[in-house]
Amino acid sequence: MQIGKVPESVLKRSILNKITTRRDEVLVHPGVGEDCSVIQVAPDEVVVLSTDPITGTVHDIGRLAAVITSNDIASAGAETIGILASILLPDGTSEEELRTIMTQMEEICAAYHMEILGGHTEITQAVNQPVITVTGIGKLKRDKLVTTGGMKPGDELVMTKWAGTEGTAILACDREEFLKTRFSQEFIDDAKSFSKFLSVIEDAKIAMEVGVSAMHDVTEGGIFGALWEMASASGCGVQVELQSIPIRQETVEISNFFDINPYMLISSGSMLIATSHANELVAKLACADIPAAVIGRAVEGKDKVILSGGERRFLEPPKSDELYAALEKKTIG
Fold first, then answer.
1. With 70 as the cut, is the pLDDT of residue 333 above it?
2. Labelling 290: which of 121, 159, 200, 305 has CA 20 to 30 A away?
3. Distance CA 310, CA 73 (A)
């Protein structure tokens, strides 16, 4: 199998089909596109849990670990209470490097009023770079719960921020020397600054105030992957205008440089939202300085279609994220 998320067919066949034990208090079970599990703890309250590793980069890994998991919790409409972190470090890691990771993680937790609840830290020969796996724990009133699979035909699709945001920031940091052969330092630094846009907590909060059917933070597989996952989880199709998908010029140029598809590039910081109040939502997001656009709608049936210049393209199940293809390149051109 390729680097990145396992293919959907493998996920269903070798993971989801093997999970057969169920408990009554678990309201949301594992499924394609569902990033959170939900457990009822009181008649009107649920606990939301999600877990994610950071494996694609070591730059700002502490911040990324805290942000990415809190994004999953936010996509369910919940408030993150805290996180548990498992930190695996390669032999030779200094205490200063560990301290930096923890400082980064605590900065994010302080900004969003989350607590580091505990975890595990280990030096091991099993890894050749730091690997952090974070489990987030959130809370929510049951009647406010949002899932990836709640989209209905007729809902409009709103996308916040831009395609490929996280991937752009990672490549600007981890492949800076390659990029310097074509781009100015100012351009590269601008691309690095995309890392400040990776949280969707405020995006989700505003969306919940307006009213939504479903939310999904756009991560591995990019916006094309997120569209597929939300449609599959909801049992309906989508129709999206490619020209309506927001994307920054830095992402376009860096993607062209590495010969990758920016719409299949990891895009943490972007939220895909299904709602019947799309224009109101875009306006309220704009008031909070969060760019957003209506990119399409949910439709009857199973077809997942991208429209571009009169042409129709059918989406396929997400494959390995384009980030890994770019990181693996040893030469350019």
1. no
2. 305
3. 38
